[in-house]
Amino acid sequence: MTAARLSAGGSAIDRSRPVSFSFDGRIVEAFEGDTIASALLAADIAVVGRSFKYHRPRGIWGAGVEEPNALVDVGGSQRAAPNTRATTQPVCAGLVSTSVNASPNAAADRNAFIDRFARFIPAAFYYKTFMWPDWHLFEPRIRAMAGLGKVDPNWKSRGPAEFAEQINHHCDVLVVGAGPAGLAAARLAAAAGKSVMLVDEQYRPGGSLLHRDAQIDGAPAAAWVEETVAVLEAAGHPVLSSTTAFGIYDHNLVGLNQRHHDGRPDTLWRVRPRRVVLATGAIERPLPFADNDLPGIMSADAALVYLRRYGVLLGRRVVVATNNDSAYEVSGALAAAGAEVALVDLRADALPMPAGVSPHVGRAVVSALGRMRVEGVRLDDGTTLAADSVVVSGGWTPTVHLFCQARGKLAWHEDRASFLPGDTVEGIAVAGALAGAVSLSDVFGTVERAAASFAESKTGLPRSTGTEATGAIMPAWPVPGAKGRVWIDYQNDVTAKDVELAARENFVSVEHLKRYTTLGMATDQGKTSNLAGLALMAGITGRAVPEVGTTTYRPPFTPVPLTSFAGAVGGELMSPVRRLPLENVHRASGAVFQEYGGWLRPAHYGGTDADADAVIRDEALRARGSVALFDGSTLGKIEVMGPKAAEFVDFIYYNTMSTLKPGRCRYGFMLSENGVVFDDGILIRLDEHRFIVSCSSSHVGAVHARLEEWRQDRFGRDAVYIHNATAEMATLTVSGPRSKALVEALGLGLPLDDAALPHMAIGKGTFGNDPVRVARVSFTGDRSYELSIRADRAKPLWAVLQESGKAFDAATIGLEALMILRAEKGYIVIGKDTDGTTMPHDLGVDGPRQKRGSDYVGRRSLFTDVATADYRLQFVGLRVADGEAPLSTGAHAIAKPEGAIRSQGFVTSSYHSPILRRPIALALIERGATRHGETIDLQHLGMLRRATIVAPCAFDPEGGRLNA
Amino acid sequence: MTRRYSAFSLFREGIAGQKGWEPAWRSPQPRKTYDLLVVGGGGHGLATAYYLAKNHGITNVAVLEKGWIGGGNTGRNTTVVRSNYYYPESVALYGLAHRLYESLSDELNYNVMFSQRGMVTLCHSVAELEVAARLVNAMQINGTDAELFSAEDVRRVLPNYNFAPEARFPVFGGVWQGRAGTARHDAVAWGYARAASRLGVDIVQNCEITEFIVEGGRCRGVETKRGSIRADRVGMAVAGHSSVLAAKAGFRLPINSYALQACVSEPVKPILDTVVLSPGTGVYASQSDKGEIVIGGGLDRVPSYGQRGNLPTLESVIAGLLEMFPAFGQLKLMRQWAGIVDVVPDSSPIIGESPLPGLFLNCGWGTGGFKAIPAGGTLLAHLLATGRHHDISRPFDLDRFATGRLLDEAAGSGIAH
Amino acid sequence: MQLFPCPFCGPRPETEFHYGAEAGNLRPDGAEVGADRWAGYLYMRANPKGATREIWVHMTCGEFFAMERDTIDHKIGRSLALGENAE
User: Fold this and answer.
1) Which pLDDT tens digit goes with each residue over A427-457?
2) Among B2, B202, B27, which Cα is nearest to B109's?
3) Taking CB atoms and an 8 Å limit, are B136 and A890 in contact across chains?
4) Which residue on chain C is closest to A722 by alpha carbon?
C-alpha cells in the first residue's frame, strides 16, 4: 500500500455513509462525498487511464476541472456520460466507471506497445506518411484507435421529463468563483444592496480556503466561508456550486452549466448581469522533467486537496518538487500526516523548511523513475530519491479564459511567470489570483478594487489574520535539448521534443504550434500545458513569451453536455407544425395527414399506405364527377387597407391591380426584386381601400413580411395598413359540377346566379349569425366556391356541408387529389412548378412586362440580359405515349450537342390523371413555349423516356367547366 | 535535411531523433517587387501560388498573409469536401476541386487525409425527395457521382439516426455522394505552402495590406506593414474580409459578412461514419479521425466580422443535432468557434478581374470555400498568369450581377428568394 | 446573445430580430435604370468592418427601424424608427 485513506479527516466525505461503485470492473469502496478520483486514490489505484496517442499509463494529476488524465466513461446508476473527469464526478451507489481509451482496462492495455514506437510517430507524423498506396487503407484502423470514451448507440433520453432545464437570470452582479475573492466580492455587493449571483464549479463554495491554511477576521477561514454563504442565501442571492461559468458572450451574457448529483440532466443558465466579477483563481502547472507523466506524479495542490478534503494520503514516501512557495504548505501537511517528505526546490534561497521535511534546495528534478508508476526521481546533481509518489508545483496559471472570451487582453508578468489581465473590459472586474494576488490580504485588496464600481462602502470586507501565503517563483520552463521525454500535454501526448520539431519545421506561431502538435486541443483544452508549450517555443526561437502570444480562448471553459444546450427544444418544440382548426374533425373522418410547407394537412381520406394512390385517384375522379369538399383554410388571407392601398397592391403585384372593381378578384404574381416569381394567388378587392391578398399557404409569413417591408419603407405607416388574418378565418372549398347546388342548399342568403356572382367575384352571406365570404375562384378548373368563416365556427359549417353533400354525392378530398386536379388544368404551384429563376414570362404571362408603365417590385430585373435570353426554361406540359407510366418528377430533359449530354429542363409535376385515364406532367423546358409538339428525351436515375411537349393544360382547355 | 515525406523518411528520422526535417516552408523577408502577388495566405491563396509555379512556371511570386497561414476560414471550417451541385457550371468548378483533392496528398507529398466517407443529404418529405431526384439527375447528367437513397439506404449508412415514428424530421430518402468526405483542413494549407515554397514562392506572414498601389488606373502592388511591394498583377483570396480590401481598392462587392459557427464534441470511439446534412434542422455533422463529432449549422442572424461564437445559434444547432441523433445526448461540447464568411446573393463564388484593373478576385465562397481550394487556386492562378478567364471560371465573373446570370444553387433546388 | 433596442419595445434578445439591409440603399425606380446601377441596388454592399447603420425588423412587433451597430465588437448605438432619421 502506498496511497491510503487516513483514519480521520476529510471535510468533504461522510464516513458514516459508505458507497461502493465499480472502476474497470473492480468494486471500489468509498464514502459519500468522494469523487471517483479520491476514491481511486484511497484504493491505491494508480493507473486510471491511457493517453490518447501512445497509450501511456496515466494517473490522477489534479483535483478539479483541469484534469488531463483521469477520464472515465460513467454509466450504471448514473446517466451515461463518456469522458467524464474522475476528479469532478461524485461517487454514488451503483455507478459504473470505465477507463477510456484502454482495452481491456487501464492497467493492462493491449495498445501499450505503441509507446515503444513513439520515436517514429512524433507530432504530426501522419502528415508525412500513410500516402502510399492510399490513405484509405490506413484510415479505418486509425479511426478505430482514435477517440476516447464510448457512446452507447442505444442510449435514449427518457423523454421530455428529462430535458435539461434552461434558466434565464438577471442580476446586478455575477461573481464567478467562490474562493476567498469571490465570496468577499459577493458579500460586498450584497451589502451594497445589489442582487448577486455567486457560482463555483466545485462541489461547495470556499475554493482554496477548503484546504489551505487561512484565518479570516480572527477565526479559521472555514467559519467565514460558512457565514458568508449563509448571509448571501438568507438574503436570497443564489449561491450555486457544481456550476461552471463556461462562456462569456456578446453583451456579457454568461453561460453557466450546473451539474446535479441526483440523476437529473445538467441545467443551463443564461445570466445577464450588469457587472461580472471574475474570481476564477489559478491552476497549478507541472514541472518539466523526463517522464513527468508517470502515474503517482500529482499536482501539489491536488495532493493537499485529497489529504484535507478526502482524508487520503497520497503516499508514504513523497518527493515534493517545486519552483515556488506554494508547495511548502503542502510539504508540511504531508509530513504532518505521516509521510516521509523530501522537498526539491529549484531555488537556493527558499522559505524555511517545514518540520519533518528533508530539504534539497537549489536542485531540480531531471527525471522520474519507474514504469507503471513513479518510484523515485533523479536530481540534477545525479542523486536519486526513492518515492512512491511525487507531487509537483511548477507555478500557477491564472484562469484567464473567461476574461479573454470577453475580449480582454493579457499582459505578461515575468516575476510571476504568468499572464494576467492587462486591460479592462466594460462591465467586467477581476479579483483574487486572477488579478495577481497571492496572499489573502492581497486577495481582499483586489476585491476592494473590483467592487469599487458597485459597492461604495467597504463594510464587510474581511481581513486576513493568519499566516500569509507568498508567491515567489523561479520560472521553470521546458528547455530545448533536454534529455528524455518531457511531457507537456498529458492527454494528447505532446512532449518538449514535439515542440522542438514544430519549431524546426517553421510552425512557430502559437496557433501553428497548437494545430501541428495538437498541444492544448484535448478535452482539457491545455489548462495545465499551454503556457509551458508557449514558453518552450519562446525559448527555442529566442523570443519573449508574450511575443509568441497566446492562443484564442474559446468557449466552453470545460466541456458542457450537449443536452444543456438543447434544453427542451426537440420535436415539434423545435419546429412547430401549423395545424388546421378542423384537424380533429378530419382525423375523425379518417384523414391521413402529411406536412406541406409547414402545415399539417389531410393528404387523403381513408386508405392505407398500400392503396393510397387508388384512394387519391378516386377522390380526384369524384371531384370531377359531382362535388368535392376541401379544407383550404391554410390559404393566405392578408388584408391590405388604407388610402394608398390600391397604389400599394399595384406596386407589389406584377399585374395591374388597381383597376380591379370592388367585389371582384384577380389572379396575379408577386415578384422578388430580382424578377423571380415569388408567389402567386388571388387578390380580392373588398372595397375602394381594402384588399385581401390570398397567397400560397406556405408563403403567408414571407409574403406578410415583404408587404410590411414595402409598406414601411416606401408607403409609410399612415398610408397603408396590413393585417394577417390567415389564422382567423377558415376557408372551406366546394368545387365541381354540382358545387352551386350544394352551396345553394346551405342557404347562405346570397344570390348565387352567375350574373350576381360570376367567376372571380365575391359575395357576402351568412351562416347562422356569422358572416361568410363566398369567393368564386377555382384551383380545380371546375366551378368552385371558397367559403370563408370565422375559424371557430368552421366546424358546424363543415358538418352541414358534409351532411348536405350526401345528396350530391360529395367527396371530401385531400391535398393529393387537389394536386392532380390543378395539374390537369396546368395550374402551377410556386416552388414546385417554378424554381428560383422562373420569371413571369416563363409562365406565359408577359403582358404586364410588355405594357405596364408604372413601377412594380422586380420590374427592372425583367429586362436584364438573362431575363431576355432565348434559352430560358419555360412552362409546358408533357405527354407520354398511351399506355406508358407517368414520368418521374425530377427527370431531366436532355440534349446531346456535340456528344456532351446536358440538361434542358426538368419535370416539375407528374401524375396519373383519372379523368383523362392517362399520365399528365408539367415541366420547365428550355424554349419550351415554342416547342409544342416536339418529342424530347428525358433521363431519370439513368433511365431514358420520351415525351412530347404540349400545352400545360390537359383538361378542359376551353375552360367551360368554370361556369358549368 | 530530410525533404521528402514517407514512411521510410519517418523511420530514418525516428532513428535520428527527428532532427533532420527542414522547415515546411521558408519565411523570407519580402522583396520590393514580384511578378505577381497573392494577398491572403489561406488555402486559396497558397494554392494559387502553388499552381502559378506548377502550372504556369511563374515562381517570382509572394503570398502576403496578415497573420499566420491557414488561420482564417481554412482553419475554421468543418472540412467537408463534396461536389453535389446542380448547375453544370458549379459541377465543373467543384468537380475540378474534388478531382484535385483525390490526388492532392500525392501531388503535394503531404497527407491531407482526404477521407471519402460519403455524404448523405437527407430528405424529410416527398416534396424534398422529388427535388432530390431533380438534383441527382442533374449531377449524373453533369458528370459527377450521385445516388438517390431510399430511407432504407439511409438507415444503412446512418444506423444511429432518429428513425422513430414520432421523429420531427422523418427520413424519406437522401442524396448520396460517395466520393464526398472530409480532409484535414490545416494540412491542406500547410501542404500547399510547403509545395509552393519549394517551387520558389515566398510566403510572407504577419504582412498586412494597408492599401493598394494604383497607378494609371491599374493596381501595381500593395502597401503593407512591411513596406511597399510591387507587382504586375495582384490576386486576392481573403475570405471573410473581401469587402474590406475591396473598399481599399475603391469598389463594392455583392457580399455580406456573417459569422458561421462550428463546434466539436469531445472525442469518442467511431459512432458516425459519413457526413450527414439535414435540411430540416440545417445541421451537418461528421466524425473526425480523432473521434470528435464536428458540427455545423446555419449562419448567425447578425452580419458580423467578430470571430466568436454565441449561444442562440449554438443552442439551435445542438438541438437539431440531438433531434437527428438522440444518442449524441451523451456527448459534451468541447470547443465552439466561428469564421467569417462572404455571403453572396447567389451563394456562388466570384472569380475574375475586379473593377480595379490588375486586381483579381477569388472570394464569395460563403460557407463552402474549403472544398473548392484546389479549384480556386487553379483558376486564380490562371487569371493571374494569363489575364484571362479559364473556361470554368468565366461564369463566376463579377459581371453576372449586372447581366442577371446568377448561379443560385438554392434556386436550382426550387427555392424562390 | 445580444440585446437589440427596438424603438417601440425596448431592449429585446437578438433572436426576435431579423436583419434587413444596410441603411441608405435607395431603390432606383423605373425600367430604364442602368444595369450596373440596378445591380448596385440589388447586390453591391459596403459591408463595413466596424461602425455601420442597418435596417432591422423586430419580428414580434413587425416594425422596421434603423440601428447603429459595430460589426466587430457588436456594440449597439442608437436605434431609430423609420422616418425619425435626422439624415
Assistant:
1) 999 999 999 999 999 999 999 999 998 888 7
2) B2
3) yes
4) C62
Shortest CA distance to A503 belongs to which of B186, B16, B23?
A: B23
| Three cell numbers written together for A499 | 515542440
Contact status, residue A921 vs residue A893, Cβ threshold 8 Å: no
Asked if A925 and A951 touch (Cβ cutoff 8 Å), the reply is no
- State the cell numbers at B2: 530530410
Residues in C touching A719 (Cβ below 8 Å): none
Asked if C5 reaches chain A (Cβ–Cβ under 8 Å), the answer is: no
User: What is the enclosing helix (H) or strand (E) of B341?
Assistant: strand B332-343
**For chain C, domain boundaries:** 3-25+35-81
Whether A285-395 and A826-963 share one fold: the answer is no
pLDDT tens track for A31-41? 999 999 999 99
In this prediction the pTM is: 0.96
Give the separation between CA A307 and CA A323, rounded to whole angstroms: 22
Q: Which of A130, A155, A890 sits opposite B133 (nearest CB)?
A: A890
> Is some CB atom of chain A closer than 8 A to the CB atom of B256?
no
Residues A716-739: pLDDT tens digits? 888 999 999 999 999 999 999 999
Helix pair angle (A530-541, A496-504), 10° resolution: 50
Ranges of residues in chain B whose predicted pLDDT is under 70:
412-417
Class of domain A628-821 as given by CATH: alpha beta
Task: Give buried/exposed letters for A373-389 (b at 16+ CB in 10 A, else e).
Answer: bbbbbbbeeeeebebbb
Into which CATH architecture does domain A285-395 fall?
A: 3-Layer(bba) Sandwich (3.50)
Below-70 pLDDT ranges, chain C: 84-87
Q: What's the grid cell of residue B259?
A: 459569422
CB pair distance less than 8 Å for B253 and C44? yes
Instruction: Report which of A388, A392, A375, A287 is spatially closest to residue A338, judged by C-alpha positions.
Output: A388
Is A270 in contact with C42 (Cβ distance < 8 A)? no
CA atoms of C14 and C67, how far apart (whole Å): 13
- Rounded mean pLDDT of A225-236? 97
- Break chain A into its structural domains and give their ranges: 4-126, 166-283+398-453, 285-395, 487-543, 628-821, 826-963
Architecture of domain A166-283+398-453: 3-Layer(bba) Sandwich (3.50)
Q: Mean pLDDT throughout A20-43?
A: 97
The answer to whether A339 touches A329, Cβ cutoff 8 Å, is: no
Contact A188, A458 (CB under 8 A): yes
State the CATH class of domain A826-963: alpha beta
3-state secondary structure of A312: strand
Q: For the beta carbon of residue B118, count every other beta carbon within 10 angstroms.
A: 19
**What is the DSSP code string of A74-137?**
EEETSPPEEEEETTT-B--TTEEEEETT-SB-SSSBTTGGGGGGGGGS-TTGGGTSS-SS-HHH
* Cβ neighbours around A407 below 10 Å, total: 17
C-alpha cell at B190: 500547410
Which residue in chain C has the smallest CA separation from B316? C15
Nearest-CB residue to B71 (from A511, A570, A835): A511
* A180-191 vs A221-234: helix crossing angle, rounded to 10: 40
Query: Residues of B with CB below 8 A from C25's CB?
Result: none
Tell me which of 3.30.200.100, 3.30.2270.10, 3.30.1380.10, 2.60.120.560 is the CATH number of domain C3-25+35-81.
3.30.2270.10
CATH class of A4-126: alpha beta
